[in-house]
Design brief:
Structural class: alpha/beta
Bound molecules: nicotinamide-adenine-dinucleotide
Number of domains: 3
CATH class of the largest domain: Alpha Beta
Oligomer: single chain
Helix content: 40-55%
Number of strands: 19
Radius of gyration: 28 Å
Strand order of the largest sheet: 12-11-10-13-14-15-16-17
Length: 700
């Protein structure tokens, strides 16, 4: 068996090194070995203090997530009890934290009497991101150490803090410069403690008493900011317990709430998301042996909304970018916008003046394609027009060096038709960034018919390097995300013609947890953008005169959304107001189209929008456009604001019940007459899954 603990003696000190590569996940075997080692050290009279460290590894990244939902999680020694035992050891027990102490790893450090950390270490309790709460004493010990407000903040954020911040908060007692011998410093610290008069464990003062309305205010804030989310509310309840109950009772309360969180559908959904992110990087035909092309220089064509944001991603990662435009004014505007964005970061204290200049120095503007000759990756972000993009790619084919990867940021166009105008279609790929491109995490990587495996592998790797979550899609109209958006938004628009208001539709969707409703989103993206896409395919849409009719009407009036102060809503500054005139326009259009208006229930809005979204996701899977249902979910969570705690549209479908979704689509299809017969067709995969009695989505 692999040796999980390295136990050494150094005179009066016991050194316990965790050696469970790669990150000292606290699985059952490691817990067992750790318990034995601590018992040995505690019972040995020659040992006066103990140093706990990650032997040449990070201290610990926490619980073994693979154990979740299995009996191993609770098999003795379970982490909560192990940490209670450790906290009882009446000798200084010092956590020497290098790398990370996250989740259960930080809870382990909290059960120690002191903490010393390498200055580049990161400490955090990210459980809330998995729909959980720290369940091994963290919710009780952290507030006792750093105070109620700071502890609550750290657990609700789920974001790690760096060791310096941790020291300032009182979470870490001492810092060690990176590169110094952490274990040696921890031993020195232990000997200092032994030489001093202090007791083995520092006495904890009484917990600071938050004001009487502190918890009520926090609860109101959570309800407003994270409506419907269970884990943050449970975190708050545990911290309240910490402030009101003695430790042992607080720990018992934490246990009960932890189990409640663990068994919740929200935690299942967030775990699904977590594993989907790992899976998304596994692509058939690509593995660790697939060669990668070096990417040292990047070029971006078009310095508009997307081009500028895309360029910033690479510059932020230290990769030089050449930005090409057709006109000098457009180039100047694009570069000025990038500087402005960085200046905002500077004002917010996220960037130093030197960093700003460093980033701008990595950016070169040009009007001349000859300057792209040495680029390893070129990303085109010009107007969404096939002929223009093809012209750009013909030129790229002339000027770029052999082996350069040629990418398009198109949202809807056929990447294969773009690749076809080059003599190197194997080097062409779609890289669909989302707006704002320097912020949004999702990157749809569009694998064309001819895209070479090493091109795909390289783009996946570079996506990670710039902090994106790449999800691979095959070529189709709109790829995964925008193709699903179409039937979802179509139903939303149609529902307004049938008698709902835009605000009612949006309320139902945000009530489900979506970051934005359909109409607020269209107003933000620009109603004219969708109009242009529809114009290009008008002949295919002639059979349904109601199709996005309201959007077309608003566009014709110049009501393009937020940017024009009016769209589906009216805008006063940043405030979004309902617009009675839009509802009147919808009434008039409905009359023209012979649509009988009626009162629409929230349930119908939910069902028709969501079922159509789910249906299209299943169809994409069936067509092989998306590789797996988790990929579809990731696209909607990270690109369209679908709540992660519902696991994405397809996971949500499983929770609703596939048979219920199918029955719902059929019911609305029958009820909606010609419109229903035209659009509400169940995906064959959904029918097959239900016929086979499946409750989980798979290709069958
Ligand atoms: P934009 O109009 O803001 O920018 C386009 C820029 O390209 C302009 O600055 C223009 O001067 C420049 N340009 C046009 N033709 C050019 C040429 N031949 N050579 C060099 N530069 C040229 O548009 P955008 O919103 O940044 O969209 C760009 C691309 O990104 C489109 O394909 C769009 O579909 C896609 N996209 C946009 C979004 C979004 O939300 N805006 C999201 C994802 C993808």
């Amino acid at each position: 068996m692999q040796q999980l603990i390295d136990y050494r003696r150094d005179q009066e000190l016991a050194l316990i090194g965790l050696c469970h590569a790669p990150v000292n996940a606290l699985g059952h075997e490691l817990r067992q070995a750790l318990a034995s080692a601590c018992e040995l050290a505690a019972s040995d009279p020659a040992v006066r203090a103990i140093v706990l460290h990650g032997r040449q590894l990070p201290f610990s990244a926490g619980a073994d997530i693979g154990e979740f939902g299995t009996p191993l999680t609770w098999q003795a020694p379970a982490l909560p009890q192990l940490l209670v035992d450790l906290a009882r050891i009446d000798k200084p027990l010092i956590a020497a934290i290098g790398g990370v102490a996250l989740g259960g790893g930080l809870e382990l450090a909290l059960a120690c009497s002191q903490r010393i950390a390498s200055a580049d270490a990161r400490l955090g309790l990210p459980e809330v991101r998995l729909g959980l709460l720290p369940g091994a004493g963290g919710t009780q010990r952290l507030p006792r150490l750093i105070g109620v407000a700071a502890a609550l903040q750290m657990m609700l954020d789920g974001q790690p803090v760096d060791a310096r911040q941790a020291r300032d908060m009182g979470l870490v007692d001492r810092l060690v410069e990176p590169g110094a011998d952490l274990v040696a410093e921890a031993c020195r610290f232990a000997r200092e403690l032994l030489a001093g008069p202090a007791p083995a464990r520092p006495k904890q003062g009484p917990l600071d008493e938050p004001s009487s309305d502190f918890f009520a205010a926090q609860e109101a804030q959570l309800t407003a900011r994270k409506p419907g989310q269970l884990a943050p509310q449970l975190v708050l309840a545990t911290v309240r317990a910490a402030s009101e109950l003695p430790l042992a009772q607080g720990l018992a309360r934490e246990q009960a709430l932890f189990r409640q969180a663990l068994e919740s559908p929200q935690a299942t959904a967030l775990r699904h998301q977590f594993f989907a992110e790992r899976e998304a990087l596994k692509i058939p035909g690509i593995d660790a042996t697939t060669p990668l092309r070096p990417i040292r220089k990047v070029a971006v064509i078009g310095a508009g909304t997307m081009g500028g944001g895309i360029a910033m991603n690479f510059v932020n990662a230290g990769i030089p970018v050449t930005l090409l435009e057709v006109k000098p004014e457009a180039l100047d505007r694009g570069l000025a916008q990038i500087r402005k964005n960085y200046e905002i970061s500077l004002k917010r204290g996220k960037l130093s003046p030197a960093q700003l200049e460093q980033r701008m120095a990595l950016l070169a503007g040009t009007l001349d394609y000859a300057d792209l000759a040495d680029a390893d990756l070129v990303i085109e972000a010009v107007f969404e027009n096939l002929a223009i993009k093809q012209t750009v790619f013909r030129t790229l084919d002339e000027v770029c060096k052999p082996g350069a990867i040629l990418a398009s940021n198109t949202s809807t166009l056929d990447v294969d038709q773009i690749a076809a105008v080059t003599r190197r279609p194997q080097d062409v790929v779609g890289l669909h960034f989302f707006s704002p491109a320097n912020v949004m995490r999702l990157l749809e990587v569009v694998r064309g018919e001819a895209t070479a495996p090493d091109v795909l592998a390289t783009t996946l790797q570079i996506a990670r390097r710039i902090g994106k979550l790449p999800v691979v899609s095959r070529v189709c109209f709109g790829f995964i995300g925008n193709r699903m958006l179409e039937p979802y938004a179509r139903e939303a628009h149609r529902l307004v013609l049938e008698g709902a208001s835009p605000a009612q539709v949006d309320r139902v969707l945000t009530g489900l947890g979506l970051a934005m409703g359909v109409f607020a989103m269209y107003d933000l993206a620009g109603i004219d953008i969708g109009y242009l896409v529809r114009e290009a395919m008008r002949d295919q849409l002639a059979h349904d005169p109601s199709y996005f009719r309201l959007a077309d009407e608003l566009c014709a009036r110049g009501w393009h959304g937020q940017k024009s102060g009016r769209g589906f809503y009216r805008y006063e500054g940043r405030e979004r107001l309902e617009d009675a005139e839009v509802v009147e326009i919808a009434e008039r259009l409905a009359a023209e189209l012979g649509i009988q208006q009626r009162s629409i229930s929230d349930q119908e809005i939910h069902d028709r929008c969501l079922f159509m979204l789910i249906n299209e996701g299943l169809q994409l899977l069936d067509e092989g456009i998306a590789l797996r249902s988790g990929d579809v979910d990731l696209v909607w969570i990270n690109g369209y604001g679908f709540p992660a705690w519902r696991g994405g549209p397809l996971h949500y479908a499983e929770q609703l019940g596939l048979a219920e979704v199918l029955a719902g689509i059929e019911q609305y299809r029958d009820r909606l007459g010609a419109y229903g017969a035209l659009w509400l067709q169940p995906a064959p995969l959904l029918q097959r899954l239900v016929a086979a009695g499946k409750t989980r989505i798979e290709i069958c």
